[in-house]
Write a structure and sequence with these properties.
The protein is of the alpha/beta class. It has 13 helices and 11 strands. The chain folds into 2 domains: 173 residues, Rossmann fold (3-Layer(aba) Sandwich); 142 residues, Isocitrate/Isopropylmalate dehydrogenase-like (Rossmann fold), CATH 3.40.50.10750. The strands form 2 sheets. A 6-stranded mixed beta sheet has the order 8-7-9-6-5-10, sandwiched between helices. It has a 5-stranded parallel beta sheet with strand order 3-2-1-4-11, sandwiched between helices.
């Protein structure tokens, strides 16, 4: 069973409510149609009901079963505005500021709905940059207890199952932290291993490669030393985690290269989680894999949040949106289970 089909099947076991705020984008409405047909989530669409229904009918999109909430007239608007004001007044936000941003920015409204428990998560980013999705989330929802570094990752599904976990990898951080410190990289490695167990293979073994342009001291610089230190810190935080670094990509995913370049490596060239040294490398890496290897890319997905919120690539398809909604449902299931 393909990764996303397995995720959808898992989502159906305990349906959650997910918000899609970007209803001005027709791909989002088409994605909602797929979700409703697949029965993987309850869907809330944000916007004017008449306009959403008009566009849907004109384009033969069936969104029957979705709940439409208009931020401009929702009965809970003032409750959300007051709570947002209380959360952000120390940062200089006034009540009028809170009302204004909730009326004008659907991502803030979605964030407040999730924060207040009126939805389990939301998915955005089809027509807005990553920062527009993540800014309100990091301000309002924040990280769950014990998590110091909230980060983002992609699930990459390759047509060739020779690599990774039957063709599936986690790439982190490929969407949030621009230049993580060694401490943050070690956190990212550990939370990525948790995401692997949640989403990729609950019975599998996370095998983490801390990537660099150097393998085991073949080069020395400030850049390589950061990865070496991150590897050391991750081992100290979780001694049982199967992790190695610093490794070049080929030594991380090719056993024959690992044998030559990194003999004795505990992951033996079989990594299924790739931790990139910075956002440049992570973003370039996922796009190279997606376009040149014809891989399916789901993300940027967030890890470490108290409630699940996920971003979308602005080049996403309706099918991608439906897939990320299903992933968000599964994340919500795990958060509920672990509380």
């Amino acid at each position: 069973m393909k990764f996303i089909e397995r995720i959808k099947e898992q989502a159906r076991q305990n349906i959650k409510t997910i918000i899609l705020p970007e209803t001005e984008d027709i791909r989002v409405l088409k994605g909602a149609e797929i979700v409703l047909k697949d029965k993987t989530a309850n869907i809330i669409l944000l916007g004017n009901e008449n306009e959403i229904n008009k566009v849907s009918e004109e384009n033969n999109i069936n969104i029957k079963g979705a709940k439409i909430v208009n931020p401009q007239s929702d009965e809970k608007f003032e409750e959300y505005a007051n709570y947002l004001f209380e959360l952000r007044k120390a940062k200089g936000m006034t009540l009028e500021d809170a009302r204004k941003i909730l009326k004008e920015n659907s991502r803030y409204f979605a964030t407040m709905m999730v924060k207040m428990g009126d939805a389990d998560g939301f998915v955005s980013g089809a027509s807005h940059p990553t920062s527009d999705t993540l800014r309100p989330v990091l301000q309002i929802i924040k990280g769950r207890s014990g998590v110091k570094t909230v980060s983002a990752f992609f699930i990459m599904c390759l047509p060739n199952d020779e690599f990774g976990e039957n063709g599936v990898f986690i790439y982190a951080d490929s969407g949030m932290n621009e230049n993580p410190t060694a401490e943050q990289l070690s956190d990212i490695a550990i939370t990525s291993s948790e995401s692997f167990k949640e989403l990729v293979n609950p019975e599998g073994i996370p095998k983490v490669a801390m990537l660099s342009y150097s393998t085991k001291g073949s080069a020395h610089s400030e850049l390589t030393e950061k990865v070496v230190e991150a590897t050391k810190l991750a081992h100290e935080k979780d001694p049982n985690l199967l992790l190695d670094g610093e490794l070049q990509l080929d030594a991380a995913i090719l056993p024959e290269v690992a044998e030559r370049k990194a003999p004795g490596s505990p992951i033996k060239g079989n990594a299924n989680i790739l931790v990139f040294p910075d956002l440049n490398a992570g973003n370039i890496g996922y796009k190279l894999t997606q376009r040149l290897a014809h891989a399916e890319a789901y993300g940027p997905l967030c890890q470490g949040l108290d409630k699940p919120v996920n971003d979308l690539s602005r080049g996403c398809s309706a099918e991608d949106i439906a897939g990320v909604v299903a992933i968000t449902v599964v994340q919500a299931q795990h958060i509920e289970k672990n509380k």
